[in-house]
Known about the structure:
The structure holds two protein chains of two kinds. By secondary structure, chain A is mostly helical. Chain A has a single domain (5-218), classed as MetI-like fold, CATH 1.10.3720. Chain A has eleven helices and no strands. The longest helix of chain A has 34 residues, at 5-38. Chain A is globular and about 65 Å long. The model of chain A is unreliable at 222-226 (pLDDT under 50). By secondary structure, chain B is an alpha+beta fold. Chain B folds into two domains: 21-252, P-loop containing nucleotide triphosphate hydrolases (Rossmann fold, 3-Layer(aba) Sandwich); 265-385, CATH 2.40.50.100. Chain B has ten helices and 21 strands. In chain B, the strands form four sheets. In chain B, strands 7-8-9-3-10-11 form a six-stranded mixed β-sheet, sandwiched between helices. A five-stranded antiparallel β-sheet of chain B has the order 2-1-4-5-6, covered by helices on one side. Chain B has a five-stranded antiparallel β-sheet with strand order 14-13-12-15-21. In chain B, α4 (143-150) packs antiparallel against α5 (165-178). The longest helix of chain B has 17 residues, at 195-211. Chain B starts with 15 loop residues before the first helix and ends with a strand. The A-B interface holds A 121-122, 124-133, 135-136, 139-140, 143-144, 146, 224-226 and B 75-77, 102-105, 108-110, 112, 114-120, 129-130, 133-135, 160-161, 175-176, 179, 185.
Amino acid sequence: MGLNAADLTAVWLTIRLAAIVTSVLLVIGTPIAWWLARTRSPLKGPVGAVVALPLVLPPTVLGFYLLLAMGPHGPIGQMTQAMGLGTLPFTFWGLVVASTFYSLPFVVQPLQNAFEAVGERPLEAAATLGAAPLDAFFSVALPLARPGYLTAAVLGFAHTVGEFGVVLMIGGDIPGQTRVVSVLIYDHVEATEYAQANWLAASMVVFSFVVLLVLYVWAPNRKRGG
Amino acid sequence: MSRLPKAAAGPTPHTEAAESGAVSAAPRGGGLRARFALNYGDFALDADLALPVRGVTALFGPSGSGKSTLLRCVAGLVRAPGGYLEINGEVWQDEAQGFFLPTHKRSLGYVFQEASLFPHLSVEDNLAYGRKRAAAGARRVDREHILELLGIAHLLGRRPDRLSGGERQRIAIARALLARPKILLLDEPLSALDHARKQEILPYLERLHDELEIPMLYVSHAPDEVARLADHLVVLEAGRVLASGPLTATLARLDLPIRLGEDAGVVLEGRIAERDAAWHLARVDFGGGSLWVRDAGLPMGHAVRVRILARDVSLALEAHPGTSILNILPARVEELAEDAHPALALARLDVGGAPLLARLTRRSAATLALAPGHAVWAQIKAVALIG
């Protein structure tokens, strides 16, 4: 018993997907979160709402529109075709793009909270000490927001691992390409391979528990004097 | 009963008019010229100042008077539309030309109310933060000397959260100084500290004042800090400049003490001229005479400040020989004004050219028939040596 080769392929694929999506999200989520934390623009509300949409939308709705957009007649599809990349649906990279949208709020919101907690004062102090805004961001804001980065990375990773609806809409069920753990569990159940499904499902439970344990126990205490 | 003239009414003999309000002449080729106007609806700042860029200039006023906002404008942390700022001939802001130098390009040090040390850096790295980023060619500072002046050399390895409030603030001051600024801005640096911590830091600030050439703008609402540290005093109220001038002359103005209440008084500068070992007293000679104070162990010739509160000065028409009061000086009444309470009056005296304030009841003023020009004896009950 245990995990067979197909299961392990799916596990590896899932980890690879989640790792790439998390890295992409930390990079593009940082400027969005920074902007949301500090702007006084009237666009703050609408942009924040758009970022939060995946929290409330059914994954199939998001998946459906991403499928249209990335398809041969959608704007993203036309762009990728023009670049000679073909179309993204039913490929690994299509999943990466879709998951990036889907997990965006889980990364942006902890980062935004962290930047808001840093506040104005340390950045003002940095400016009076001669640090240009970008310098102050990297030398002061980023280190002070570190707990938020840990939370964001863990949540982004875990949420990507757990997605199902978007994967089915965009990726289908191609072994080694788009067949991630959550889809494979569904396949096992469909085929009444309950033992196999149980092994994978139990691994997910353990994984999720460990992730939350990291968040609640290891996350550094944010309250520090200064 | 004769009514006392109001301070505001009638001509005043001194030069307050020239010193009050906006423009007193700054030294040629130097000085700080600032014009800022801001309107936040419930609060408006409208300041036009010319200040010397040397020694300590105190921006004094009650909370909400705009002194901190003014300081933030000078630092560029707040951008006042239409603002103008020039320091020693170097223009930092001239909105008429669309010019605004951002904070990080201004050669200044800033000490906030709370120390604002970076919690993720050690004390040593906090100190290095500004030093590494100081403009090339800026005035050199002696790091060891500053560490020693502020008494923090033993704290370098610590984290900010392992420091007392007073230690943090001393390190914040050192951090600002090590960035080699042309001017140091301090925004009520002691207000977040309790009385004991304040007394702990004030001597360090005095040492900076005495030993470093760095000019300071010091925001405070505490008269005792101003009396100890300031050379030049700017009084703000409701976003406007009420007065700007040298400390002694400005404190002696009769239209301001009302706002100082119990703290109304003057600060005189002098030198230790004699020490009486038998009685543990020291004689301080100031421009207009001399005063006996408790001997604080200062050497002969040492420059000192003494503060004399108006409530500690009483007036007599004759010198009474039988009194315990040590310091009795001949003076001339220059001006009388109403005080905050209707029973009280304030008198400004001239003691050999130096000003003195006396608080007395209006009945006493009438009984003695005090009027400008009268010769009196000023009996000084308490003289505080403040450094």
